Amino acid sequence: EPEVTQTPSHQVTQMGQEVILRCVPISNHLYFYWYRQILGQKVEFLVSFYNNEISEKSEIFDDQFSVERPDGSNFTLKIRSTKLEDSAMYFCASRWGQANYEQYFGPGTRLTVT
Amino acid sequence: AQSVTQLDSHVSVSEGTPVLLRCNYSSSYSPSLFWYVQHPNKGLQLLLKYTSAATLVKGINGFEAEFKKSETSFHLTKPSAHMSDAAEYFCVVSAGGSYIPTFGRGTSLIVHP
After folding, report:
1. Using CA atoms, how far apart are residues B8 and B110, in angstroms rounded to an integer?
2. Which residues of B touch A93 (CB under 8 A)?
């Protein structure tokens, strides 16, 4: 069964450094998402991406964040200058359509900012 | 606008007894509703979904949920809990407009031997 993959599984970085989190969505899916889950808190929507552009973003997704689909298979989330509060589990998800279609989630990348 | 309320942050049951995880939603449109499960240090796995067909939805691992429009609820049930069901469960709503899924805060299911 096809699945969403994410790399790395765990990333440790120092405050102020740039990080890139990578995701490979399911190949025929059209909609892509990033979520984050701070330890012990709810899963929060960050951004959605469709047709090579951001379709929606939350207030969390500020100028420090960017997303890209550089080569038709990878979907990346970049944090330009990490802060301590960026420490969280980041989930990538994809789905074929909107309305009734479920999202398929990757296993997540745990980002630790020291 | 849409929102999801999971009424219990923790539910504790004994193995072999029924499970009930409660979810209420609000939506300006006819919603699609989902339950996801997250085992420790794992990603999110879809348990079941409601998409305006049958109101009683059967999912994996013996779970089912009933969509009740009049009560705006989508509670998750299982007749008999298993130790392997211990996990975090998320109720999710997705509706018209942007269809961006909104997650509930999650319910931690604890299963005692």
Report:
1. 12
2. 44
